[in-house]
């Protein structure tokens, strides 16, 4: 049995358990699978029962997962630390044990997170690190949300537990506060993992990871500090926004919206400290388009700095552009590894690019075709296509290649620049489910709202239409009019609402098929008012 079959079964089993769990934001428990409908679960179980090898593998996976299943929700939550600790994927890439001096490269350190949490030990001398009681230090720094804040932590706990006497020369040996144990200019990171990819967006659909990370840093091209290795964990190598060409800072953010409905599933996260600005907030909504199809609405608001560059890439692919006049131009630079930039500095609204995916790893069935389309409705943004340097294969591969990327960029002469990046992302096989997309300006008492407030009409190929409003609830610059000034209107639709986010779906005859909202109390369309989701669309 190959690794792909093993991975598939593992994912299936994870989805099949359907164990009771709490709602993400608190509330009623669940008793069904989050990932798979009952019909698919039953079919998977039946297939596994018919194959002796799969049955044995199922039992092995279930047994290995048992310790995790026995943990409470609070215990599982406590296993993952927040962004207050710098991430690192290894103790020291080509390092040695500080106790015995023998070589211990990358993954040779011993760990067992369940039986010996917060500890790692040398494979030669079995010396255990960090030598301090890091768990006690960590718990002393938890804020009211249960997230570690080093500024709150009790630093008097930072001593070698086997040498508590401050006069003992080994009193500080092996002590790690989350930023590593430092000795003779060398740093051992016994706690942590590291990438600067805040607000990164990923997408799994049609059997592929369609918006993947680049993967394991290519240390085979000169080590961990080589330019190509640094490129892999730069902010600019991810599906997010770079401000002033800089990598993001470590910071703790907040989930400010959560919706899990039948037609609309949405999440909004905010973390301005990542960029040292006033706003860094991303709203992502998945909208069901019927018959296994969907699209993703992406609204990304940024206030701070004076150069905002939104990057997006997919898989190995060829890139097609519509509605753009691309000409060769300057590279983005800032130490990135991209080339062949082609620019349109004044694109019209509604342009799009499509990735025609090349299945180089053979994940798809014969003849299957996968495409990913991005349609942009950002005001005042320049656009460029480019190619990004990546390694094809795993961490031991040296097969270099280039994949197509997209950059939408807004700049200003003075700070703070305020941007609202708006896009529609759609995976599809042969035919797009979307016929057209248009952006309108919402109003309050007849006055146009600022750019951070978004109204979109998405016309589907089957004749239905989605009317969507996404409002800027943070409004850090206190721009007017805002949602706080009264009900929001989109007069062309006859829509009025006080919701933070809402969607009204019209059938082919123009009648309301569904209405759903987040926040607020109502949606009104042409005099018809809805105070609850229609049809009844209970969060779950």
Considering the chains and any ligands shown, give keywords for the structure.
single chain; mainly beta; eight-stranded antiparallel sheet; 32 strands; 12% helix; globular; disordered N terminus
Please summarize what this structure is:
The chain has 540 residues and is mostly beta strands. Helix content is 12%, strand content 32%. The chain has four domains: 3-79, no CATH class; 82-194, no CATH class; 196-427, Distorted Sandwich (Beta-galactosidase, Chain A, domain 5); 433-540, no CATH class.
Lateral strand order in the biggest sheet: 9-10-11-12-21-18-17-14
Count of DSSP strands: 32
CATH topology of the largest domain: Beta-galactosidase, Chain A, domain 5
Q: Low-confidence spans: pLDDT under 50, at least 5 residues?
A: 1-28
* CATH C-level name of the largest domain: Mainly Beta
- CATH-scheme architecture of the largest domain: Distorted Sandwich
Q: What's the helix and strand layout?
A:
Blueprint: H1 3-16, H2 38-49, H3 52-69, H4 73-79, E1 110-111, E2 120-121, E3 128-129, H5 134-140, E4 181-183, E5 186-188, E6 204-205, E7 208-209, H6 227-232, E8 241-243, E9 254-260, E10 264-270, E11 279-290, E12 293-303, E13 307-313, E14 317-322, E15 327-328, E16 338-344, E17 352-357, E18 371-376, E19 382-392, E20 399-411, E21 418-428, E22 434-440, E23 443-444, E24 447-448, E25 454-460, E26 465-470, E27 488-490, E28 495-497, E29 501-506, E30 512-518, E31 523-525, E32 528-530
Antiparallel strand pairs: 1-2, 2-3, 4-5, 6-7, 8-13, 9-10, 10-11, 11-12, 12-21, 13-20, 14-17, 15-16, 16-19, 17-18, 18-21, 19-20, 22-25, 23-24, 25-26, 26-29, 27-28, 28-31, 29-30, 31-32
């Amino acid at each position: 049995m190959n690794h792909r079959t093993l991975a598939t079964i593992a994912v299936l089993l994870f989805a099949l358990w359907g164990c009771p769990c709490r709602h993400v934001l608190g509330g009623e428990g669940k008793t069904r699978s989050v990932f798979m409908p009952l019909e698919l679960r039953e079919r998977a179980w039946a297939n596994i029962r018919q194959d002796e090898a799969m049955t044995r593998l199922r039992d092995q996976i279930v047994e290995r997962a048992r310790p995790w299943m026995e943990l409470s929700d609070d215990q599982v939550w406590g296993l993952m630390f927040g962004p207050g600790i710098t991430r690192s994927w290894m103790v020291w890439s080509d390092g040695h044990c500080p106790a015995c001096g023998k070589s211990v490269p990358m993954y040779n350190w011993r760990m067992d997170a369940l039986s010996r949490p917060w500890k790692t030990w040398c494979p030669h001398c079995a010396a255990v690190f960090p030598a301090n009681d890091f768990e006690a230090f960590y718990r002393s720094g938890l804020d009211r949300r249960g997230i570690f804040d080093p500024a709150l932590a009790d630093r008097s706990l930072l001593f070698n537990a086997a040498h508590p006497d401050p006069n003992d020369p080994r009193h500080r040996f092996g002590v790690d506060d989350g930023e590593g144990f430092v000795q003779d200019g060398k740093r051992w990171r016994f706690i942590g993992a590291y990438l600067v990819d805040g607000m990164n967006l990923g997408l799994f659909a049609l059997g592929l990871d369609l918006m993947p990370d680049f993967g394991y840093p290519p240390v085979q091209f000169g080590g961990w500090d080589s330019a190509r290795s640094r490129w892999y964990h730069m902010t600019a190598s991810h599906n997010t926004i770079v401000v002033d060409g800089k990598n993001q800072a470590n910071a703790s953010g907040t989930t400010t919206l959560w919706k899990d409905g039948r037609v609309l599933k949405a999440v909004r996260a905010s973390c301005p400290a990542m960029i040292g600005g006033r706003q860094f907030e991303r709203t992502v909504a998945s909208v069901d388009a019927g018959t296994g199809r969907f699209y993703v609405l992406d609204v990304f608001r940024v206030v701070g700095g004076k150069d905002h560059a939104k990057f997006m890439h997919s898989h190995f692919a060829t890139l097609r552009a519509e509605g753009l006049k691309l000409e060769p131009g300057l590279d983005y630079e800032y130490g990135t590894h991209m080339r062949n930039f082609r620019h349109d500095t004044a694109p019209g609204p509604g342009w799009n690019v499509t990735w025609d995916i090349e299945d180089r790893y053979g994940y798809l069935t014969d003849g299957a075709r996968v495409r990913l389309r991005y349609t942009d409705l950002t005001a005042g943004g320049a656009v460029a296509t480019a190619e990004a340097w990546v390694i094809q294969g795993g961490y031991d591969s040296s097969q270099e290649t280039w994949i197509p990327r997209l950059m939408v960029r807004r700049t200003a002469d003075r700070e703070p620049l305020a941007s609202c990046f708006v896009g529609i992302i759609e995976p599809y096989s042969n035919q797009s489910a979307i016929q057209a997309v248009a952006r309108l300006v919402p109003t309050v008492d007849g006055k146009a709202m600022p750019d951070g407030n978004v109204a979109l009409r998405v016309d589907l190929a089957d004749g239905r239409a989605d009317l969507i409003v996404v409002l800027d609830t943070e409004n850090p610059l206190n721009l007017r009019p805002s949602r706080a000034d009264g009900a929001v209107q989109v007069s062309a639709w006859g829509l009025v609402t006080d919701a933070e986010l809402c969607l009204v779906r019209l059938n082919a005859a123009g009648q309301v098929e569904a209405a759903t909202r987040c926040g607020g109390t109502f949606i009104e369309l042409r005099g018809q008012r809805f105070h609850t989701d229609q049809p009844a669309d209970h969060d779950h």
